[in-house]
Amino acid sequence: MEQNRVYNFSAGPSMLPEEVLKEVQRDMLNYADSGMSITEMSHRSKPYMAVNEEAQALLRELLNIPDNYYVLFVQGGASTQFACVPFNLLGKNKKADYIISGNFANKAWEEASRYEGLDIHIAGSSKADKYTYIPKNLDIRPDAAYVHLTSNNTIFGTRFNEFPKTNVPIVADMSSEILSREINVNDFAVIYAGAQKNIAPAGVTIVIARKDLVDDTDNVLPYCPTMLKWKTQADNDSLYNTPPCFPIYVAMLVFRHLKKLGGVAAIQKVNEEKAALLYDFIDNSKLFKSTVAKEDRSIMNIPFVTGDLDLDAKFVKEATAEGLCTLKGHKLVGGMRASIYNAMPIEGVKKLVEFMAKFERENG
Ligand SMILES: *Cc1c(COP(=O)(O)O)cnc(C)c1O
User: At what angle are helices 245-261 and 18-27 packed, to 10 degrees?
Assistant: First the structure.
């Protein structure tokens, strides 16, 4: 790692691979011999069109996305997709089911519930238990247009280790884990993800959607704004209007980098190793405790507490002084949270575990 860089455990925006940041820095004044920065050129220019194309192609390759899916680059963050999902899928069939496994899942359900004439149903929820586990024994209506879930719960640190077995199309918010583990895209009707956790700077949102669903425009609610209609970007190769060129360009570099590392299978192994290091320590610690059900643990976001607010605060302060930054937990959980996305080197997790051991010796 570069001197004076820290290990940043932020939940998002979060770390990017240092190699990519350096490449961005090198390219900044003169991209691909154009004499201008990627942020200064037309989105219809040759160099940018090549970026748009390569970024899409690499994402298809990395996630093994079949041809019958669109890959879209849109704006507005994952939060805008909370509206896009009902807008684009409930034009005919008004029924949709939601699994409420965390704060973002709850927001997605709230958004869908705002619109008149829709029949929005909760198929399962762990809200009453502070989202400490993934809801099981789901009540998914077999005639629903889709069931929505958040595959990895960023704030609470749980994830679906297995996805529901259902014939109802699954729509998944994968913002905080996309490209961190192998998935079978065919298991989903739609996948969406904001870029700022595992892919790129904030500003671009990825939508992977089955073409038959998007092309059937009867699925779109009549009042859906043009810019929120997936078909708008699908018909225009995500160039209907000015795209967020810079984050898409960084995404392309991150995809290249990930491919060089061996793709999703390779990074999954490292991610599992990183999570195991941290969880093994927590499970054997007398001071630190996990806050979630063991079988539902995320390997991206790992919350932990001492049970003593003052001690938690002391931990965060002393860790920061050691270059282990942004470990303060989300206000809904408290304590600490280590977000260890793809770009967090294993050395960062090792250093965190060493620091936790030292802290426990001194304060346990
Ligand atoms: C961060 C996050 C969001 C919100 O993303 P924005 O891009 O800020 O709208 C939604 N869902 C999940 C799972 C997230 O981690």
Answer: 130
Helix-, strand-, coil-residue percentages of the chain, each rounded to 5: 40, 15, 45
175 lines ligand 1 (CB under 6 A): yes
pTM of the shown model: 0.98
Whether the CB of 154 sits within 6 Å of ligand 1:
yes
Which string of DSSP letters, residue by residue, matches 187-204? G-SEEEEETTTTTSSTT-
Q: What are the pLDDT digits (tens) for 10-67?
A: 999 999 999 999 999 999 999 999 999 999 999 999 999 999 999 999 999 999 999 9
Decide: 198 in ligand 1 pocket, CB within 6 A: no
Query: 149, 162 in Cβ contact below 8 A?
Result: no
Residue nearest to atom 8 of ligand 1 (CA): 77
Q: Are 332 and 11 in contact (CB under 8 A)?
A: no
Phi-psi region of 157 (alpha: psi -120 to 50; beta: other; left: phi over 0): left
Going by C-alpha positions, the residue among 340, 273, 268 that lies closest to residue 304 is: 340
What percent of the chain is predicted at pLDDT more than 90? Answer: 99
Ligand 1 center to 364 CA (angstroms)? 35
The three-point CA angle 285-133-131 to 5° equals 100
Contacts of 179 (CB under 8 A, 6+ apart): 62, 63, 198, 199, 258, 264, 267, 342
Determine the Cα–Cα distance for residues 121 and 141; give it in Å rounded to an integer: 9
pLDDT band at 2 (very low <50, low <70, confident <90, very high): confident
